[in-house]
Specification:
The chain is α/β, with parallel strands linked by helices. It is built from five helices and twelve strands. Strand 1, helix 4 and strand 2 form a beta-alpha-beta unit.
Amino acid sequence: MDNKNALRQQARAAREAWEERYLQSADSAIARRILEMEIWRAADTVFTYVSIGREVDTRTLIEAALAQGKRVCAPRCIRKGRMEARRIRSVSELAPASFGLLEPPESAALVLPGEIDLILVPCLAADDAGYRLGYGGGYYDRFLAGAKGVSICLCREQALWESVPRDAHDARVDFVVTEAGTIAVEKEA
């Protein structure tokens, strides 16, 4: 775990050093790639993190999903290491929560993991095997373990590492999308 924490600090420091122009350009290209995917077009229900700080921006995708009539849900933390999906109809519904996050209100409709077609996942870094270096709480690993939808990690090319350290409980995503391309992760049979 100490190694992962050191790598998290390294990834955060690298992200802080990236120029704003690179962030905007990369995020725009990542959003375009997502919107062009057949998986996106076919999805009725999309679960997405709500980006904060220097994370890959999801607001464009949230707005696009809402405009396309998709059911959009975002994470709401319910206890340490656990989150649930709550429906949003507008970004304006989101309220400040722990860790500087924006979350749907408790009154928002619960969406069960089995109802979600597409899951957009954040990372500090990822690799082409579908593993990601998250923030250390295990929220997404637990959520993905119980979800049936296709998972896509949004990762800038500069945060795409040759290999991300992994533990037995780490969940793999189905795709990693960067500004340079889309990586379909091959899963073991």
